[in-house]
Amino acid sequence: MAKAVANKIAPTLVERRPVLAGQELSVTGVTLAVLPTAQRISLRAPDASVAALSKALGVTLPRKPKTSTAKAGRTALWLGPDEWLVIDEAGKDPLADCAELTVLHSAVGISHRNVAISVIGPAAAATINSGCPQDLSLDAFPVGAASRTILGKVEIVLLRTATDAFRVECWRSFSDYVFTFLSEAAGDAAA
Amino acid sequence: MLLIRCPYCEEERPELEFRNAGEAHIARSADMAATSDDDFEKFFFIRSNPKGIIYERWRHMHGCARFFNAVRDTVSDRFLLTYKAGEPKPAKLPGAAE
Amino acid sequence: MIATFRIPGAGRLKQAETARFSFDGQSYAGVEGETLASALLANGVHLVGRSFKYHRPRGFLSAGAEEPNALVEIKRDSARRTPNVRATVQELYDGLTAQSQNRWPSLAFDVSALGDIASPLLSAGFYYKTFMWPKSAWKNFYEPRIRAAAGLGVAPDQPDPDHYSARFAHCDVLVLGGGAAGIAAALAAAETGVRVILADEQADFGGSLRFESGARIDGQDGFAWAQGAVAALKAMDNVRVLSRATAFGYYAQNFVGLVERVSDHLQSPGRELPRERLWQVRAKRVVLATGAIERHMVFADNDRPGVMLASAARTYLNHFGVAVGRNVGVYTANDSAYAAAIDLKKAGVGVAAIVDLRDHPTGSVIDEARALGIEVNFGRAVIRAGGKLRVSSMTVQPKNGGGERTIPVDAILMSAGWTPSVHLFSQSRGKVAFNDETKRFVPGTYAQDCVSVGACNGTDGLSATIDEAYAAGAKAAKDAGVKNAGANTVKGIKPKVDASESWSRGMLGAAPGAGPDTTVKAFVDFQNDVTAKDIRQAVHEGMRSIEHVKRFTTNGMATDQGKTSNMHGLAIAAETLDKPIPQVGLTTFRAPYTPVTFGSIVGHARGPLFDPTRKTAIHPWAEPQGAVFEDVGQWKRAWYFPKAGEDMHAAVDRECVTVRKTAGLFDASTLGKIEVVGPDAAKFMELLYTNPWEKLEPGRCRYGIMLREDGFIYDDGVVGRLAADRFHVTTTTGGAPRVMNHMEDYLQTEFPHLNVWLTSTTEQWAVIAVQGPKSRDIIAPLVEGIDMSDGALPHMSVREGRICGVPTRLFRMSFTGERGFEVNVPADYGQAVWEALWAEGQKHGACAYGTETMHVLRAEKGYIIVGQDTDGTVTPGDAGLDWAVGKKKTDFVGIRGMARPDLVAKGRKQLVGLKTKDPKVVLEEGAQIVGDPKQAIPMTMIGHVTSSYWSENCGRSIALALVTGGRGRMGETLYVPMPNGTIEVEVTGMVFFDEKGERLNG
């Protein structure tokens, strides 16, 4: 596949200004935090390419709906039958890992498109359920479950990272809405 | 709010994640440019709008993002069946004898 | 001092009167935990409101949510004023301020009560009959007066300062109603370990156990058992218990809406508490345990304050410790009122007489009443209540006529029987069935996975209720899919009923005191002032269906939705029609069960959460620069950048001139961006756009047009080919989501054989347009790895490289007609790269410009804006864009639509330029165009102005317009009639500036 020019994370001459950088909120039962920047790709591929892509990325792409896999700071979320969100928090660019692959696929860098907010605490699920209609019980949405869904009036990607912890991903310009929504919901979630 | 079974996510998900996309099984001609005026009218403008069973397209817009087909009863608003895009119109419907 | 009507030792509240409150300015003392109704009754206050139509004095009918009369305004402060609060539901807190409604000048003397005397004018259907003549009087006379007189309460006039929260919840078994049945069902379900939610609208669980003094369960008083059982449920991890939570709507697939009143009962709720919380619950199984509502007796003047339901009097006594009078009368057609009389008598309240409409009733309660020395009369009716602001007597007569006897009383307790609360069952689309023996509608055919238990199912008696409910709870849990009961769940034991009260039957419709004399007012529906006479009249005037009777009389159409009146109304209609009740039918129950605030439905979606506000990465730079922003969909876009002293026109003129003279920077980040990747990317582009793409070389760009299948323009944008299998597509700002959906639709369902994928990159890239003769000079010093010469980077090309050390996709393109570039950088670098370019730009005298200048500059060049110059009925040909349609292509979306007869016919509206004869006159966008301004009105309109601006660069106004046969009218004079006169315009080409396009390389 022809490659998009991968971000090699070279030293830059200008400052990176992530949106909402460092914002946090802590109330009874739940803590919200805007997470540090991460490398991300939107990965699309047919079944036949999954094995090669998994190998190149170093993480086995999940095949089961609403699941994710993780290895060495890299998480692959099943978003659709031929769609994964790959998030790297270890400073390595998954776009570069796919660049030389010749199997059929589409890898598009979206590191700057998405913003991640962690929602942690015993009231985390209730906070998210203020605007998300999915069943977030551990039976229905266990640790590792991942899904694109709705929060209030915007689309999010939701990943359960622990019993009491979620990662909420949204587009950059929606992050203010999402953080504000979660902040307001958090205040009522211990009920 | 309805629950709709997404054939790709293999579970029922809340209606808020979905968007209706009109009637299903209306094939776009492989030779579109040669379609007659009458056929184009049928293809583009005419919809069945039944009272009862309708075959329609939905998109799991805020989920797996796939388009799929559904069979719904417009009277009871109940979904009888959902199936993947491209699969043929089901010959038999569950509960159709009711 | 203990209020006069509080009975020491009675009730369940600590009787220390800690809550001061006021009603209509008068100060009173009450007990925290009681309702406002209870507190007023304790102080001897029965008169609390005036009725809707006749302004008759009204008191309390009930002790619960079914209350039709006692509606008051609760005022916390100037903004927190809630009208139409049921005093029987509102809990007392210290400092509560309540006011009566629908009266002037005072509750005791209401001028509008003259309507009571003039009531023949206001009979059933008066809406449809009275105000028909003269016709002109409706608007100027009748309507304003009716509007002033109608309505209950006064809406608050300030924004609601409270906040409201919302929660989606899921459970296996949802139990609605927290009386004996609901608690038993919840216990049975919870013990299996499934997720259970138990909700009740009251502050205290127990339902009718609050007043049924004869109930004993598991060796204790019924109410005490309920409290213990609910405490046990609350302690279980798998159970959520919601009090003060009304299930108001039952929707498809066991989706139930509940409003939890979180802080309306608190004296000073903390800011952190929402006023209400909306629960949207999805349950695998629902158990309906919604109980039954007592009916009143329909007789003359049965609405006098002090006339109330027997069960209400019992609740006030047994739960709140308040007597509703000192000398009460009882009027009944069923046993349950006897229990009220007995309880009151035992508490030391005088019971003047029990009047029982039945001829020969027997039973232990009757014997007990007699044993207590209460006078009991069979086969008699109360034909009239005496008194006005408070009942003073009841007039009794043998039911088949005879001598009247008037008995002084200060309250009348009545019971016509009990109506099962099938509201939620009916909302679930279940069909009710009429039980001819017990004369009540009970759940018949179920439409959803739910079950009714107890009184709402027509089950009589506590023992039978608990048996039924416990079994139903266990079955619901099993059907919902019980997991293996964990070690922590204790296998429960079914509650054992030791003593219970039981009654059924009663009567429906009008009692003997309700006519046929048509001058009496025997109320069926208190809130809408509907009498037995009105229902009969509706039938006599031709209404046959209960639905028509309901609308003609407004019976059951008030905010209480006829909880006490529907069955009486139906029975009277059936009797008048001489038909059995099921043949007349029952009106449909609809959500909400009780009124729901707008706040609880809005929830979090207000203020900044009403709608997302999207801001670009460059927004934080533009804001302190003084940019004025405009809303474009959800985006905030910089509109113009005024300098000190500049108005919008001055700023835009300066920006327009500066861009063409030197250069300007423009934030184009909101443009939609889609990355199209895969070996079939070009094939896909060929199908989705009118243009040819296969031969576009990597590194080159093309302006693309997207049509719908009907041949009309859907979107446009510049597309860059990054590689053989990779396109960078741009869309309009507003079109981004729908274009993505449109492309996905075709890819997934029409062209699934193509190996290509789409990814939205709108927010991955910040886009900085640098336009103007100096644009290259500004950018070049910051760019690495891209040859920016005209030879290497010609107009309409794209290169990947670095700018300021960060990756860029650098487009050479122009939406101004000037030499121009669009610099794409990863969004988090957008602001810093903009600042670097801005610093370079300053050296050349460049400006920042906003969307208004962008619009003017593109209009000067005749570049269209999809959605402004097109409206969904414009073809490429109409817009003068035929050149962008691949003539050799055999298929693309819209190819057939473009050939439709109407789309190829002559005389279509075509996009042209317009120049006003007076160059200083700027046309209004949307203004209509005519060929002959002297023709008669209505004139034949041949087009409209789509874009119009003052162009400082052209020194005149310019406009684009869609005009019938426009391109054949070059040089023609047309007319734009406006309120201030007709404007003459000349039809021109669409390009007003640099017609030869030389400046693209200038």
Structure report:
The complex is a heterotrimer of chains A (191), B (98) and C (1002). With 191 residues, chain A is α+β, with helices and mostly antiparallel strands. Chain A folds into two domains: 20-37 and 113-191, Probable tRNA modification gtpase trme, domain 1 (Gyrase A, domain 2, 2-Layer Sandwich); 38-110, 2-Layer Sandwich (Alpha-Beta Plaits). Chain A is built from four helices and eleven strands. Chain A has helices at residues 50-57, 94-99, 124-129, 175-189; strands at 24-27, 30-34, 39-44, 68-71, 74-80, 83-88, 106-109, 114-120, 146-151, 154-162, 165-171. A six-stranded antiparallel sheet of chain A has the order 1-2-8-11-10-9. A five-stranded antiparallel sheet of chain A has the order 4-5-6-3-7. In chain A, β10 (154-162) and β11 form a beta hairpin. The radius of gyration of chain A is 17 Å and the shape is globular. With 98 residues, chain B is mainly beta. In chain B, β4 and β5 form a beta hairpin. Chain B has a single domain (3-84), classed as Folate-binding superfamily (Folate-binding fold). In chain B, the strands form two sheets. Chain B has a four-stranded antiparallel sheet with strand order 3-4-5-6, with no helix packed on it. In chain B, strands 1-2 form a two-stranded antiparallel ribbon. Among the domains of chain C are: 19-126, Ubiquitin-like (UB roll) (Roll); 167-292 and 421-499, FAD/NAD(P)-binding domain; 515-582, Orthogonal Bundle (Arc Repressor Mutant, subunit A); 667-858, 2-Layer Sandwich (Gyrase A, domain 2), CATH 3.30.1360; 906-1001, Elongation Factor Tu (Ef-tu), domain 3, CATH 2.40.30. In chain C, strands 8, 9, 12, 13, 14, 15 and 28 form a seven-stranded mixed sheet that branches. In chain C, strands 41-42-43-44-40-34-45 form a seven-stranded mixed sheet. A six-stranded antiparallel sheet of chain C has the order 47-48-49-46-51-50. In chain C, β13 (245-251) and β14 (255-261) form a beta hairpin. The relative contact order of chain C is 0.08. The mean pLDDT of chain C is 94. The chains are: A alpha+beta (191), B mainly beta (98), C alpha+beta (1002). At the A-C interface, β7 and α4 of A face β8, β15, β39 and α22 of C.
Keywords:
heterotrimer; A: 191 residues; alpha+beta; Gyrase A, domain 2; Alpha-Beta Plaits; 2 domains; 11 strands; disordered N terminus; B: 98 residues; mainly beta; Folate-binding fold; four-stranded antiparallel β-sheet; two-stranded antiparallel ribbon; 1 helix
